[in-house]
Amino acid sequence: MADYLDDLRLAHVLADAADAATMDRFKALDLKVETKPDMTPVSEADKAAEELIRGHLARARPRDSVHGEEFGAQGTGPRRWVVDPIDGTKNYVRGVPVWATLIALTEAQEGGYQPVVGLVSAPALGRRWWAVQDHGAFTGRSLTSASRLHVSQVSTLSDASFAYSSLSGWEEQGRLDGFLDLTREVWRTRAYGDFWPYMMVAEGSVDICAEPELSLWDMAANAIIVTEAGGTFTGLDGHPGPHSGNAAASNGRLHDELLGYLNQRY
Length: 266
Hints:
By secondary structure, the protein is α+β, with helices and mostly antiparallel strands. The protein has helices at residues 2-25, 44-60, 89-94, 168-172, 176-185, 196-203, 216-228, 255-262, and strands spanning 33-35, 41-43, 65-68, 72-74, 79-87, 100-109, 112-122, 127-132, 137-142, 145-148, 161-163, 188-190, 208-211, 232-234, 247-250.
């Protein structure tokens, strides 16, 4: 972990600053919310949290580039921080506590930029998860108070818990029939949404999850946490990592079956 320990510590500092900013405005009656060109909401808290993170990075890692949801890409180089200041903005603006700040450090490797550090902080849930490449995934209040994450050992779909976000995206992509077939095959389904299903896969409380349309900042931190917990994270095309525009995550044992159902065509 030595190579990235300082980066992991910095990610915790960034998350602490973002948590303070986002919790300060959570459930605020005067919270300002706008609609972006893609018709998704953005709050003043999204922008403030990303600006805080970018400011910290400019001082602590001036040579690194940053790619964030609200303010795009800045800088070039072999190291790139990927930031989603509030994943779950719709929950945030409605007072639902399921939202998080996602922070990942990606590094140029064979096959493109790959996550080497990932952190997900959900302050309204009182939870935080993180991982470093080749050194495992953890959850806890801090680096010194943490427990290691491990995916489940469930090996049959009939015993599996399947988490997802919504039905609409699957229908738009013509994948709804396969999705519904999968829901009939598994033991349990729940629409937790956003970052949370991936963290539950990493913890072993959920066995498979998937989403049909995502951006890099939605996936970079989740991907390394799932894989470092012993799971598998790919696009629906089966390509490893967070670069396919969608995601499938599992404990590894069920991954081929998960992809098989979600790629069915009728």
